[in-house]
Amino acid sequence: MSAAQPPITILVVDDDPGLTRLIGRALQREGFQTATAGSGLEATQWLKHHSADLMLLDLKLPDMEGPALVESLVSIGLSVPFIIITGQGDERVAVDMMKRGALDYLVKDVNFIEFVPTVVRRALSQLEKEQRLAAAEADRQRLEQEILQISELEQQRIGRDLHDDLGQQLAGLSIMATILGRSLAARDAPEAPEAARITDLLKKTVAMTRSLARGLHPVAAEPDGLMSALHDLAARMTSMFHIDCQFECPRAVQMNDNTAATHLYRIAQESVSNGVKHGHARHVRIILSSDVETLSLTIKDDGIGIGAPDPQQQGMGLRIMHYRAGMIGGRLAIEKQPGSGTQVTCSLPRESASAAAS
Question: Which helix (H) or strand (E) segment is 7 a member of?
Answer without folding.
Answer: none
